[in-house]
Amino acid sequence: MPGNLLEEFLFGEKKKRSELEVLADVEIYLSRLDFEEASRCLDELESDQNLFVALQMILSKMITTLREGVLSEGDLPEMLKVLEKVMEKSNLIVVLNYRVTLLTYLAVLFYLLGDEFRGDMALKTALSLAGDRKNLLKFILRTLFSVGLLKKAGYVLSKIGDSDLLNLQLVELTKVFYQAGEKRKAFEVIKHIEKPYYKALAYLALAELEKQSELAKAYLKAAEYFASLVKESNASTSIMMRIKEYEHKISGDVVSVQDILNRPSETYEWLWEQGGKRL
Q: Domain extents for the chain?
């Protein structure tokens, strides 16, 4: 059993454990899906950082368990009981980044439990605290996209006032999901990119990830098409130069911008077949 019971037996009282030992116990209990015992460890943690780590571990495991459907109906009441304690402990966290992270996880957990009201409250609070901080907004978006909460991610996107910041974050998310093998999610993210310049950047990023392949050529076609739609001359020239530079690294012919403009539907029909349905 986790914990130093031998010392308690020998010395008559439980010796205060290090917080690293407590975190190790949390991990052990969570591996057994024993959320109640894991939550009891929270009372032994005093530092904000370690309390945050434990809370994050518990919430993350709850989310994974619900998504994988490995939790029996009889265990759900225990999880809900533990969740109340997790929320109580989360309110003790004062570090901004920690609070936003925990609130985002809580929002996801409530959505998975079907409690949309509390999910929305947690998400709105996280957004309010995040403000215009790029790293926090990116985390919130990535988390929502990663669990398939696309409508909620769309809501977050609508609340970000800086369109350039928004589109740039979506380009980065596209790369993150694609590199992780979550290609469908990467394409879903691209759908939310509004400006042609950033759509071109996203497809160029995918081409660079695919390197020398037919898919890379297809992504370059898409990148060139959207680059041709950029109205601002400097931006258009900049992105087109980047695309052309990468084309030289790929063997074989690449369809020109004019060819793409003449038959965009054919290009995207093929692109979806290669990059969507088969991924």
A: 195-279
